[in-house]
Specification:
The structure holds two protein chains of two kinds. Chain A is an all-alpha fold. Chain A has a single domain, classed as Up-down Bundle (Cytochrome C Oxidase, Chain A), CATH 1.20.210. Chain A has 16 helices and no strands. In chain A, helix 2 runs antiparallel to helix 3, helix 6 packs antiparallel against helix 7 and helix 7 packs parallel to helix 9. Chain B contains six helices and no strands. Chain B is an all-alpha fold. The N and C termini of chain B lie far apart (55 Å). The chains are: A mainly alpha, B mainly alpha.
């Protein structure tokens, strides 16, 4: 067998900066995205750190109100638009979808590269806006504040968001076409890995939702420039903006969480060495979440002029989202039941995901209740809820996936022990940060203020301490994953001993992924029956437990 | 991108990109991709159409009133011009299908001329609106329901402006395709870009088919 020094891989195929910046290899573009979103994650995290430090004491002593408003606005915008939305799709999805469908690349490699450049241009607008005065409208850009009253520069960051939207559209568009048209012989829809199903559902939301936020932001920019589409002075309706905004921004939550669910659906059977329970239901539930997700946006408008009847319908529909979400959670649990569960680091992230997503999902039902929402609207209860979904859920899934596929992407194993500690710190630190916020919110602490009554201080101190632990948990992978690039043990084709097309090829993969187009004549996750097809050693359940 | 010929792709030779198995797959991928793209375009314009419809219901009289300041003759003329350009675009695709390179370039050129006429008329209309103080940013129209009329003109300029931008982008790509056609790049065996260009142009045309009655014809029954 050739050693990795001589073997051509997507990493050593060329070494110039140009070969990276002009690459059309989906794996290299995935790494470009990985580096970019990591920078954004650090920036957004710094904003979060500033917010938590300010809230350590009831007085507004560290940040003034203007600075605080800018800090949480940029924290939201950076984390949502420049980190979470591209996180799993543009890195893991970009890297894995062509491999998982048995193709050499995405359907449109040049458009894939274009999407990264569009992302960079959009992010540049965002960063220039940050250093030239910032933005204080909140990430939601609500009118008429954003169009008529905000004294900060709205047009520049809004243009950045408008541009970045197209990078998301192009990624989703590329995935949909790839999954439809590029599947290897024998790879029918119901043989696709559940990660691909989740990405397909995500891509539908990206393609159908993102254009609407783009045009909505375009209208805000126009209004800011003297047009009057949402201007209440001439009869315009700011609530119309909220409808259009949430028509995308609620489904955008599913852009963040669905890919993470796809990752979990890969990790659970892999470390349970068991066929996933209810494959069809998990696949269908991804589509159901994407579709139902488009008709629940009104639950963000319960306290506006929206009619009582509309609010009732939106409340009921919001409850309906719980069904496919629960279908997934129960199927993961059923997969683990009587499986040969082993607790490698990706599995710990996955189990952490299940716990945090459960809390996030269930508190979502509180907010879907019309009466209760009146009480907790715009409090820390809402803040805690969506962080449980978007940080506890989506980032936990992203971390799990990054660890699971890191040996494939880099060709190296990372040290297990720090990874397990990182997963544990993130779980503990996350709960420490956000669980007290449920209590503070329920007790009436409003969001988006830089000072608060003394009685909330103990909860905020807990939260800030939790955030410190969380920060350590998030920073650790940066060190040991980079360390592994040089010092890690060679991973080999299949370091975890699991099923999936991506584990049949070299690590890191050849620029064309497969030497020969694979023919798929077996069902997914068929442990242990299909193990021989892929040339795996039979995994002894007894042995696996002790790994 | 390096493009290599493979044995199982008779006729399209160097046009087959290396990540496709065969010409059929490449063709289907390209056209399917264009349809998916057009779906995003529908959603893109959809946001503006939604805003229009909501205000149209809310301020029906003001919208009818504001609509009367639009020049229906120029609007009709432009509609005919644009439908004509769809015909010439279809002729370009037809010419590609029968491998007539010069005819492709000719019909694309005709499409661009018609597109140019449309944009010229549009620019004239914009100028008149500007001079009459109907541009939202310098709106000085005084009437009891002037406010909602300004919403109408905000939407008029946003919608027609976005439509015109799409035409300009399309015409930019046409220059490239016409040049490629003159080089003899497109034959009956491979003319995917011409076909995709056609899909795009027909879509842009279709947007106007909705814009014209909504903006010009309301209240003129």
């Amino acid at each position: 067998m050739e050693s990795s020094d001589q073997r051509v891989t997507y990493i050593n195929a060329a070494h110039t900066v140009r070969s990276w910046l002009l690459t059309i290899d989906h794996k290299r573009i995935a790494l470009l995205y990985l580096v970019s979103i990591t920078v954004m994650f650090l920036l957004g995290g710094m904003m979060a750190g500033a917010i938590r430090l300010e809230l350590l004491t009831p007085e507004g002593d560290l940040l003034g109100s203007d600075t605080y408003n800018k800090a949480f606005t940029l924290h939201g915008i950076i984390m949502i638009f420049f980190f979470l939305i591209p996180s799993i799709p543009a890195t893991l999805g970009n890297f894995l979808i062509p491999i998982m469908v048995g193709a050499k690349d995405l359907a449109f490699p040049k458009i894939n590269l274009l999407s990264w450049y569009i992302y960079i241009v959009g992010a540049t607008f965002g960063l220039v806006a940050t250093v030239t005065g910032g933005l204080d409208t909140g990430w939601t850009l609500y009118t008429p504040y954003s169009t008529a009253f905000a004294t900060t520069n709205v047009v520049l960051p809004a243009t950045g968001l408008f541009i970045t939207g197209f990078s998301s559209i192009l990624t989703g568009f590329n995935f949909i076409v790839t999954i439809h048209k590029m599947r290897a012989p024998g790879l029918t829809w119901f043989r696709l890995p559940l990660f691909v199903w989740a990405q397909y559902a995500t891509s539908l939301v990206m393609v159908l939702g993102t254009p609407v936020i783009a045009i909505t932001i375009f209208m805000v920019i126009l209004d800011r420039s003297g047009f009057g589409i949402f201007d209440p002075n001439i009869g315009g309706d700011p609530v119309l903006f909220q409808h259009l905004f949430w028509f995308y921004s609620h489904p955008a939550v599913y852009i963040m969480i669905l890919p993470a669910m796809g990752v979990i659906s890969e990790i659970i059977p892999a470390f349970t060495r068991k066929k996933i329970f209810g494959y069809g239901f998990i696949a269908a539930s991804s589509l159901a979440i994407a579709i139902i997700g488009f008709i629940v946006w009104g639950h963000h408008l319960f306290t506006t002029t929206q009619s009582m009847y509309a609010a009732t319908v939106f409340s009921v529909l919001t409850f309906a989202v719980a069904i496919p979400s629960a279908v997934k959670t129960f199927n993961w649990a059923a997969t683990m039941y009587r499986g040969s569960v082993s607790f490698e680091s990706p599995m710990i992230f996955a189990i952490g995901f299940m716990g945090l997503f459960l809390i996030g999902g269930l508190t979502g039902l509180f907010l879907a209740l019309l009466g209760l929402d009146m009480h907790v609207q715009d409090t820390y209860f809402v803040v805690a809820h969506f962080h449980y979904i978007m940080v506890g859920g989506a980032i936990m899934g992203y971390m799990g996936g990054l660890h699971f596929w890191w040996p494939k992407m880099s060709g190296r194993k990372y040290p297990e022990m720090p990874a397990k500690i990182s997963a544990a710190l993130i779980f503990v630190g996350f709960n420490g940060t956000f669980f007290p916020q449920f209590i503070a919110g329920y007790a009436g602490m409003p969001r988006r203020y830089h000072y608060y009554p003394d009685e909330y201080q103990i909860l905020n101190v807990c939260s800030t301490m939790g955030a410190a632990i969380l920060a350590v948990g998030y920073l650790m992978p940066l060190f040991y994953l980079l360390w592994s690039l040089r010092h890690g043990e060679e991973a080999g084709k299949n370091p975890w001993g699991v099923l999936g097309l991506e584990w049949t090829i070299d690590s890191p993969p050849h620029p064309h992924n497969f030497h020969e187009t694979p023919v798929v004549d077996y069902e997914p996750y068929d442990y242990p029956e299909a193990a021989h097809v892929l040339g795996l050693h039979h995994v002894d359940p007894e042995e696996a437990v002790h790994v | 991108m390096s493009e290599v010929a493979t044995h199982d792709s008779p006729g399209i030779g160097s046009r087959l990109q290396p990540h496709f198995a065969n010409a059929q797959q490449q063709y289907e991928t390209a056209t399917f991709g264009m349809w998916v793209f057009l779906v995003t375009e529908v959603m893109f314009f959809g946001g503006l159409f939604t805003a229009y419809l909501i205000y149209r219901i809310q301020y029906a009289d003001a919208f009818v009133h504001a609509s009367h300041h639009l020049d229906i003759v120029l609007g009709c003329f432009n509609t005919v011009v644009l439908i004509g350009s769809s015909l010439t675009m279809a002729m370009a695709v037809h010419s590609a299908r029968i491998s007539k390179s010069k005819m492709i370039a000719f019909w694309i050129f005709m499409t661009m001329i018609l597109g140019g006429i449309f944009l010229g008329v549009k620019a004239y209309e914009y100028t008149i609106k500007w001079q009459h103080g109907l541009f939202p940013a310098n709106f000085f129209f005084e009437a009891p329901d002037a406010g909602p009329q300004r919403i109408f003109y905000s939407l008029y300029f946003a919608m027609t402006g976005l439509h015109a931008t799409h035409m300009v982008i399309g015409m930019g790509i046409m220059v490239y395709i016409a040049a490629q056609a003159l080089k003899g790049s497109y034959t009956e065996r491979w003319y995917t870009p011409v076909e995709i260009m056609g899909l795009y142009w027909h879509f842009v045309d279709l947007v106007w088919i909705f814009l014209f009655p909504l903006l010009y014809l309301i209240g003129r029954h």
